[in-house]
Write a structure and sequence with these properties.
130 residues; single chain; 10 strands; 2 helices
Length: 130
């Protein structure tokens, strides 16, 4: 049974590779971008727990983001988790208390760094996109 499952997997993988080899460069770029966006449409909040001298990581599944974000970065300032990044640079905010997503006004630049300065989420640097 294991050999049959392995053979089926290898056949399906070969079919996918054949189809991928027929894609144009533009289609490959779009597929890669779509995969990046899908990767961060759903994130997990994790907490480090310390018990008996050991460290444990606990992940919690949270609601899907409002939109996908390429090359996402995150900054937590509880109860808010700010998720931003990529060309779109839309800042999405997850509130851990009410488990809801919201957005901030779209900033004038992309590819920024971020910090919490004076209790305020601040984007730093980046590239002008307007």
């Amino acid at each position: 049974e294991l050999a049959a499952t392995n053979t089926k997997f290898l056949n399906e993988r070969a079919q996918v590779e054949t189809l991928q080899s027929k894609l144009t460069d533009r289609e490959k770029a779009l597929l890669k971008e779509k995969k990046e966006n899908e990767r961060v449409e759903k994130i997990f909040l994790s907490d480090f727990l310390t018990a008996g001298g050991g460290h444990f990581l606990k992940s919690t599944n949270i609601p899907k983001m409002l939109s996908g974000t390429s090359y996402a970065k995150a900054l937590a300032h509880l109860p808010s988790v700010f998720v931003y990044g990529g060309i779109e640079e839309q800042v999405q905010v997850y509130n851990v208390n009410n488990t809801k997503w919201s957005t901030l006004p779209r900033p004038p630049h992309s590819h920024s760094g971020a910090a919490i300065l004076g209790n305020q989420f601040t984007l730093i640097g980046g590239r002008d996109t307007r």
